[in-house]
Amino acid sequence: MEQERKIPAHVAIIMDGNGRWARKRGLPRTMGHAQGARVVEQILEDADHMGIRYLTVYAFSTENWTRPDAEVKALMNLLRTYMKTSLAKCAKNNVRIRVIGDKTRLDPDLQASIAHLEQETAGNTGISFQIAINYGGRDELVRACRKIAGEIADGSVSPEAVDADLIDAHLDTAGLPDPDLLIRTCGEERISNFLLWQIAYSELYFSPLAWPDFSKEELERAIDAYNHRERRYGGLVG
Ligand code: IPE
Ligand code: IPE
Ligand code: MG
Fold this sequence. Notes:
alpha/beta; binds 3-methylbut-3-enyl trihydrogen diphosphate
């Protein structure tokens, strides 16, 4: 009998290739980002239907500020629109939204709509959707270290109490399971500062498709590949 297909509980995605997708069509890069934003909404719905419990997407890295001002502005405006329009959808689909990354550098109105969306969806029990904005794995670890150092300095934590669980609890992803599967699109095979701590034992899948071409079928292919992996966690299997 065929073995039942395992659905990864947590899928993380480095959505890459919006610019290349647009260039190939003679369009401005921002059109690629706009199409990419539509694809995220569709994939969230597909992931939910497939039984994925947590979906985390990389929308804007701590390094993406180095792009031209107009592109940064366009990306922030897309995120702004998303935060404003997604509440009704989340309520309907029981989606819980969280933003990971350093929100303090974002415009105050964007911070406010993120906080509103997080609060309003906090009780939702369906798929948990994390959007990484101004996120960098190193930055997240630096901020966690600062918080822990502060707690050691004020005496609430002893240096001996610092262990992997305590570090986990101080990350933006506190309370979430580590990703089982990490997907990167558009043929690039690197991590680009995403979830450095959390992907210690994630399975990696590199898709040739640019993010705006990503589809439910490609997500299915990634999950099929995941099902052919043997996760060992440093031990012996079989
Ligand atoms: C991914 O697409 C979106 C972000 C990084 C914000 P890119 O904008 O990196 O597209 P390419 O890599 O230039 O094609
Ligand atoms: C990673 O893509 C960041 C996001 C998808 C938000 P980049 O396009 O910024 O990464 P590099 O520059 O190719 O490593
Ligand atoms: Mg890129």
